[in-house]
């Protein structure tokens, strides 16, 4: 197994920290245990910027920090109980979603032939990653609370689609410029094959 370089460790830590900060901005909703947060934007940017390997690692570090009790989950919560609770599937989904986004961006980037097409690849990859997060999150919500599939979708997916669409759009825009800045500064992770 290849050891991470110092640059890769630092970039992974930065994106894990960014997700921690974005998680603290949480708006509870009265009809669901799932709050509105900015998590998704951090997860999407981690996968798109760092690629599948470091995106996965950055969000894995985020989940691990919360699992050991640090208050990095939504609303300043922490502990393994959160991961095992109704909303824990979304946290697990962040790790897998970042990997999926990074995988898609790395493999679709060969088709990019300009700013618009690269933005579309980022956006499309983030939407697929968001779907992965929704599926894993809704499955655990359903299992823990004993909901039906329609109930899990109604409380764990539908209320967030519009706001998450905005977050993903903004995330794709920011990730485009961050990636290009890293590329020009020779800081792009070596495992990330995304063209800039």
Which fold name fills CATH's third level, the topology?
A: Arp2/3 complex 21 kDa subunit ARPC3
The CATH class label is Mainly Alpha
Assign an overall shape: globular
| Strand arrangement in the largest pleated sheet | 1-2
Mean pLDDT: 91
Largest pleated sheet: 2 strands, antiparallel
Element order, helices and strands?
HEEHHHHHH
CATH A-level architecture: Orthogonal Bundle
Q: Percentage of helical residues?
A: 55-70%
The low-confidence parts are none
Number of distinct helices: 7
Number of domains: 1
Strand content: 5-15%
Structural class: mainly alpha
Number of strands: 2
Radius of gyration from the alpha-carbon trace, in angstroms: 16 Å
Q: Please report the distance between the alpha carbons of the first and last residues.
A: 28 Å
Short description:
With 196 residues, this protein is mainly alpha-helical.
Please provide a written account of the structure.
InterPro entries: BioY (IPR003784). It is a multi-pass membrane protein. It is found in: Cell membrane. The protein is mainly alpha-helical. It has one domain: Arp2/3 complex 21 kDa subunit ARPC3 (Orthogonal Bundle), CATH 1.10.1760.20. The protein is 69% helix and 5% strand. It is built from seven helices and two strands, in the order αββαααααα. The protein has helices at residues 6-23, 39-67, 80-84, 88-108, 115-145, 149-156, 161-184; strands at 26-29, 32-37. Strands 1-2 form a two-stranded antiparallel sheet. Helix 2 (39-67) crosses helix 4, helix 2 (39-67) crosses helix 5 (115-145) and helix 5 packs across helix 6. The longest helix has 31 residues, at 115-145. It is globular. The relative contact order is 0.16. The mean pLDDT is 91.
């Amino acid at each position: 197994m290849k050891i991470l370089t110092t640059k890769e460790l630092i970039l992974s830590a930065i994106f894990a920290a960014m997700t921690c900060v974005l998680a603290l901005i949480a708006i509870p909703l009265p009809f669901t245990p799932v709050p509105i947060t900015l998590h998704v934007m951090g997860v999407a940017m981690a996968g798109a910027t760092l690629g599948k390997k470091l995106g996965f690692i950055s969000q894995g570090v985020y989940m691990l920090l919360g699992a050991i009790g640090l208050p990095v989950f939504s609303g300043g919560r922490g502990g393994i109980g959160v991961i095992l609770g109704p909303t824990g599937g979304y946290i697990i989904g962040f790790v897998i979603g970042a990997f999926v986004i990074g995988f898609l961006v790395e493999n679709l980037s060969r088709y990019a032939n300009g700013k618009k097409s690269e933005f579309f690849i980022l956006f499309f990859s983030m939407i697929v990653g968001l779907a992965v997060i929704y599926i894993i999150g809704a499955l655990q919500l359903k299992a823990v609370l004993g909901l039906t599939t329609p109930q899990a979708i109604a409380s764990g997916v539908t209320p967030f689609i519009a706001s998450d669409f905005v977050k993903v759009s903004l995330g794709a825009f920011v990730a485009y410029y961050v990636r290009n800045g890293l590329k020009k500064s020779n800081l792009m992770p070596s495992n990330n094959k995304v063209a800039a």
